[in-house]
Specification:
Elements: H1 3-6, H2 11-19, H3 25-37, E1 55-56, E2 62-66, H4 74-77, H5 85-96, E3 117-121, H6 134-150, E4 156-160, H7 162-174, E5 191-193, E6 199-203, H8 208-212, H9 218-235
Parallel strand pairs: 2-3, 2-4, 4-6
Antiparallel strand pairs: 1-3, 5-6
Helix pairs in contact: 5-9, 6-7
Length: 240
């Protein structure tokens, strides 16, 4: 679909376009090869093997932005942050702060519902070595831009990792929204006030590299979501 046409899509229509996207040949080859070959522990499962749609409450006040799906997590289950350790950490923290109906995220049909929260990512396909190229970021950017336009209730954005943090600021600039000067710097649990009443909170990504080394602990991640909850509670009473 031409990029200009994306600007006319609704949120649900946009997810349909994302699922069928084939803009990045390297990512298409990788995600489909992983889905064919699988790994031993998931050999009996049918992998999703396509780009991942975002999910959550379309009227959410909290937006979570990640980097990209995991090869044997989202690329297998068909839902962002489902079926891997990173998802387990994030969904548990969301649950403990009232943003999810259950503390686990196993598969796209496991009954998980987000409350006043929406999850998206800078890149929608699992990349080799978890490293998208600059062109792949560029190809995926229109999807994030359109979501930011459509998610009109967002008041707090939690960016998981430096790359997602930079992607959020870049997207805001492209949408004509003011970015503070000096430019906000990434740092775990740093809170930045942006124009339009939006709060941007930076967090280390709950990747295995960060969690297994202790760079990110469960209390640290939970504190980020608790800060998001307090910010929303100050703005107005939570929606029922």
């Amino acid at each position: 679909m031409p990029r200009a046409a994306i600007k006319d899509l609704t949120l649900s229509q946009l997810q349909g376009v994302i699922i069928n996207c084939r803009r990045c040949p390297r990512l298409v080859r990788y995600r489909e090869r992983v889905a064919r070959e699988k790994v031993r522990r998931y050999r009996s499962e049918e992998y999703w093997g396509r780009p991942l749609p975002s999910f959550g409450d379309p009227e959410a006040r909290l937006l979570i932005v990640g980097l990209a799906p995991a090869a044997h997590g989202g690329n297998r289950t068909g839902r962002m942050f489902a079926g891997d350790e990173s998802g387990g950490w994030l969904i548990r923290a969301l649950y403990e702060n009232g943003f999810a109906n259950q503390p686990t995220s196993l598969h796209r049909n496991d009954g998980l519902t987000l409350r006043d929260a929406y999850i998206t990512a800078a890149v929608r396909c699992a990349p080799p070595a978890n490293k998208p190229t600059p062109l792949e970021f560029l190809n995926c950017r229109p999807y994030l831009l359109q979501e930011l336009k459509l998610l009109t209730h967002v008041q707090v954005v939690v960016a998981l990792g430096r790359i997602a943090f930079d992607a959020c600021l870049k997207a805001r600039g492209l949408l004509g929204l003011a970015v503070p000067t000096p430019r906000p710097e990434f740092g775990h649990h740093r809170v930045h006030r942006l124009s339009g009443g939006v709060t941007l909170i930076a967090s280390y990504h709950p990747s295995r590299q960060n969690t297994q080394t202790g760079k990110l602990t469960r209390p640290m991640l939970n504190a980020v979501l608790a800060t998001a909850r307090r910010a929303l509670n100050r703005s107005r009473a939570p929606r029922s």
